[in-house]
Amino acid sequence: MESLIDRLSIGIVIADKQGQLLFTNQTIKEMTGYTEDDIKTMEDWYKKAYPDQEYRKKAKKYFQYDIENNIQDRTYKITTAAGDYKYFNFRYSQLDDEKIIFEIIDISHRLQQKHELENKEHNQLIYAVIDDITESKKQELELKEVKERLELAVSGGNIGIWDWNAVNNTVHFNENWARMLGYEHFELENNLNTWLNLVHPDDKEQALKDLENHLEGKTEKYYNEHRLKTKSGSWKWIRDIGKVTERDEAGNAIRIVGVHIDIDQEKRAAEEIEYLSNHDELTGLYNRRFLNEELKRLQNSRKYPISIIVGDINKLKDINDNYGHSMGDRYIKLTAEAIKSSLRAEDIVARIGGDEFVVILPDTNCNTAEEVTERILDRIEEVNKNEELPEPLSAALGYEATDCNSENHGVKNIRKCYDKADKKMYEQKFVNRCRC
């Protein structure tokens, strides 16, 4: 996972509540010039990145305010190891109860480009926001000028231009539009079907709906993010923005001009960050953060009865002390595999601590929960038969369901169900099988 994170185009930092930096990826080191030895704590970061005391105080104040008020996005000017300035966009989220993950994007170049474009009035061009022009001749002249300036602005970049004549259904795609999908310009036919045939089937309906809404005058501009099929057969995320520049007397759209912006890396980085924030790095299972959100969601779920299994690896501390943490990690992974292989696709399993696991079984009563618990324990016994381990792997499991018996049949609070399963797990800590 770390090698994957190191290849991201954005910086990743994980810190604990005490301000210790637990992880920094290679990108953030390249962005700032600071090494792990330079910055080991949040306080080190404040001193290095914000050498001006007044600005440092403000940065600390804003950060504390953002964390307390769940504000997840803010831009700061930071000082790099080389002594120059950069503008970073920080996004925060809780990785679990003890850790915060920072996603850091260097937007210095973007801000510089924006400033240049604003000075040249190109900002309105990039978003294809072209003022309506009432006189036809004047419109053609201005549209021609706009297109020429836009071509100049985006040449060599990751922005493609399209110009659609809705009357005869011809579309002009510029060379950038073709190149970002791996095509030569001459390989594309100049009609709307060229685009439609490349849109991902799952994205096509919404893209057409957004386009139709704009053509009918329901929106100020057309905006949609969708995947397009490249010449190699892979899918690339595109941000598609356009605007009607000409209508007939009846109000029907005649001409629409727009841009395609390549956002594939941005999307994939977001997906990887989303995975990281919801999964345990060692086992690939869901983590505590995801489990807590899922428990909240299930409060109002109709998938009752719901069962919960809480598991804990026996004597993991002794394994770590006697054979090292790498062996302890092996026990954790084997337990995770035993649990996961015992479940259905719709079941949820999370690792919420060093040796603790939680399973959520939707639409599952007490009897079925008992069967699943027995199946997990059987799988653990199979692990002991098939793996060479210094000591047998064992786990204590406790389960509870919202309909386990007449006493708790009315328990719809999923948290209470979880607490009871947890209590049973501790009661079964030294028992081979748990019962209702």
Give the secondary structure arrangement, pairings included.
Blueprint lengths: L1 H5 L4 E6 L4 E4 L1 H7 L9 H8 L3 H16 L4 E7 L5 E10 L4 E8 L1 H12 L3 H4 L9 H19 L4 E7 L4 E4 L1 H5 L12 H5 L4 H15 L6 E8 L5 E13 L5 E10 L1 H15 L9 H11 L8 E7 L2 H8 L1 H16 L7 E4 L4 E6 L4 H21 L8 E7 L12 H14 L9
Antiparallel strand pairs: 1-2, 1-5, 3-4, 4-5, 6-7, 6-10, 8-9, 9-10, 11-13, 11-14, 12-13
Helix pairs in contact: 13-14, 14-15
Could you describe the 3D structure shown?
- The chain has helices spanning 2-6, 26-32, 42-49, 53-68, 108-119, 123-126, 136-154, 175-179, 192-196, 201-215, 264-278, 288-298, 316-323, 325-340, 366-386, 414-427, and strands at residues 11-16, 21-24, 73-79, 85-94, 99-106, 159-165, 170-173, 222-229, 235-247, 253-262, 307-313, 348-351, 356-361, 395-401.
- By secondary structure, the chain is of the alpha+beta class.
- It folds into 3 domains: 2-108, 2-Layer Sandwich (Beta-Lactamase); 120-265, PAS domain (Beta-Lactamase), CATH 3.30.450; 279-427, Alpha-Beta Plaits (2-Layer Sandwich), CATH 3.30.70.270.
- The strands form 3 sheets. Strands 2-1-5-4-3 form a 5-stranded antiparallel beta sheet, sandwiched between helices. A 5-stranded antiparallel beta sheet has the order 7-6-10-9-8, sandwiched between helices.
- The longest helix has 21 residues, at 366-386.
- It is globular and about 80 Å long.
- The relative contact order is 0.07.
- The model is unreliable at 118-137 and 405-411 (pLDDT under 50).
